[in-house]
Specification:
globular, 2 domains, Glutaredoxin, two-stranded antiparallel sheet, two-stranded antiparallel ribbon, about 5% strand
Length: about 200
């Protein structure tokens, strides 16, 4: 986006869970890595590639600090409420930092309340909502809708509600899709005898 000031996007984050069957309480990182990757050694090799790519971009991934793999349902609920307050990007960034660089359990209500407060949300409202099931069904429905559209991983970017870019892609890929969306011709209205 920094390289394309002509593109003025409206950015919205939508719910999608990589692990929709994850228990609400999450699970130990060790058990998760065994189930998903066959063990910590294979996961370490995969995560090292991601860590190295992040380091090149100034992102200090610390997968070693993650002790618990969370259910992200409550994180998505928090993002939904942050959107209503115009704080969505701040809260999403804080969730990413908390989980990927600090190893925080972003499925824990206390952690999520802290993130909400640190990013300008009302602590009482966020805490109360997190302690009950406010918007839980809505988040699950949006997640299901994404799957029904064929989305099966993250990141997935939907541009102009027509074009999908899946996975971590290089900047030129996005520029091509931006150009496609910006230069798409809108068909002229059909003329009738009355015109």
């Amino acid at each position: 986006m920094q390289n394309r000031p002509d593109v003025q996007p409206e950015i919205g984050w939508r719910p999608f869970q990589l692990n929709p069957e994850m228990p609400r309480a999450g699970m130990s990182r060790e058990a998760y890595l065994a189930a998903k990757f066959g063990g910590a050694d294979r996961a370490a090799r995969i995560y090292e590639t991601i860590r190295a790519a992040g380091a090149e971009l100034g992102i200090p991934f610390r997968f070693d600090l993650i002790k618990r793999t969370p259910s992200t349902l409550d994180s998505h609920r928090l993002i939904r409420w942050a959107t209503q307050e115009g704080l969505q990007d701040r809260v999403v960034e804080a969730l990413f930092i908390a989980y990927f660089t600090q190893g925080a359990d972003i499925g824990d209500a206390d952690v999520l309340t802290r993130i909400a407060v640190e990013n300008g949300m009302d602590p009482r409202v966020a805490g109360d909502r997190l302690r009950n099931d406010t918007d839980l069904d809505l988040v699950r429905q949006e997640d299901a809708m994404a799957r029904s559209m064929g989305i099966n991983g993250v990141p997935c970017f939907i541009i102009d509600r027509k074009y999908a870019v899946s996975g971590a892609q290089d900047v030129p890929v996005f520029h091509k899709v931006f150009d496609l969306a910006l230069n798409e011709t809108v068909p002229a209205p059909e003329m009738t005898d009355a015109d």
